[in-house]
Predict the 3D structure of the following.
Amino acid sequence: MDQPASDPRYAPLLARRVPRAEIVPGVAYVIHARNGGIGVAVVTDGRIGYTLRREKLGRILLFTEWDWDQGPPHGTAIPLGRIDEAPPAGDDAALLRWLAEKEEEHADETRAGWDVVLGRA
């Protein structure tokens, strides 16, 4: 769901986002994004993104969603809270399992973000 940065439905989430200057690469965040709810911050070519667990065509894989500040159409992730537990590094299978566990633990927060955007809050 690519939305223009000016879409007013996102204002409540943007008002409480973790400021971009406070995003730390390698740290996990609860995020509002089209393809996931937990992401590990990464910086690629100067752009902030979040590596998350995504299902596509029946496969589960790691995928990067870019920070909202990147703008449309690619900036779709809004970080809403830091997760203090460190994600596993260097092992994609372990990271996929960890992300799945964190998605389950933070499902209410993720769902609440969608409720705001879709008007169910």
Notes: The radius of gyration is 13 Å. Helices lie at 11-15, 92-105, 107-118. The mean pLDDT is 88. The chain has three helices and five strands.
